[in-house]
Design brief:
By secondary structure, the protein is α+β, with helices and mostly antiparallel strands. 31% of the residues lie in helices and 12% in strands. A four-stranded antiparallel β-sheet has the order 1-2-4-3.
């Protein structure tokens, strides 16, 4: 597919057919994705292709707890896990322990273990140059060395006729997930990607136009492209 078309149609896919993804197709996707940029070209990613049914079920259960926490916050009118206007995390606005025990049905999450391909993306933390580490706000810079790789996987998957989505709910239970998957302490869980052949045909995405998020010179400057 033409790159622009791939980018404009690679939306989140959470419903898949039962058709298995051949190993050679998945290998082609990862082979294309590995050319993603990373700080110092460290390429700090490790991809776990989770196939064992028992591991998948236990991973699903951990993901489901994180999903329940997310849903409970949205129901309470809170942006889940978001920092305040000062850029800092001030703790949960609800009881997250209770939320994790409260059912929040989801066809995708409840059948997470049945997704054709589950890829756990682990990142080597010691390879990250986290230049915003000492700022008095939530750190974001470290993700620059892992999430372009994740996006490359999704774009390459779309090009191969697959669909998928990136989830971060497992990070809410990282100690348990790391123990389950034998991930060492110098690595973190950046995401779990779900991939497969989409149940529905891809359509063009809807996004805000460039002039709504691009400014000239300063944050309060004129919109880029405006007359």
């Amino acid at each position: 597919m033409e790159l622009r078309e791939v980018m404009r149609t690679a939306g989140a896919v959470r419903e898949f057919t039962a058709e298995p993804v051949p190993d050679e197709v998945l290998e082609q996707v990862l082979d294309a994705a590995r050319f993603a940029p990373s700080g110092g070209n460290q390429q700090p990613w490790v991809v776990l292709v989770v196939r064992d049914p028992g591991l998948r079920r236990r991973l699903r259960d951990l993901v489901r707890e994180g999903w329940r926490e997310y849903v409970a916050q949205r129901r309470a009118g809170v942006r889940p896990f978001a920092p305040g206007p000062d850029g800092r995390w001030h703790g949960p606005a609800i009881d997250l322990d209770a939320a994790a025990r409260t059912p929040a049905p989801s066809a995708f999450v409840d059948a997470f273990d049945q997704v054709p391909v589950l890829l756990v993306l682990a990142v080597r933390l010691t390879a990250l140059a986290v230049t915003d580490v000492d700022l008095d706000r939530q750190s974001v810079v470290g993700g620059a060395s892992i999430y372009p790789f994740a996006q490359n996987i999704l774009l390459a998957a779309r090009d191969a006729g697959l669909g998928g989505t990136l989830t971060t709910f497992a990070a809410r239970r990282e100690p348990a997930a790391a123990a389950l998957l034998h991930i060492p302490p110098d690595h973190g869980i950046a995401a779990v990607l779900a991939l497969g052949y989409p149940a529905r045909r891809a359509t063009r995405l809807t996004r805000h136009p460039v002039e709504t998020f691009t400014r000239v010179d300063t944050f309060d400057g004129p919109a880029f492209g405006s007359v």
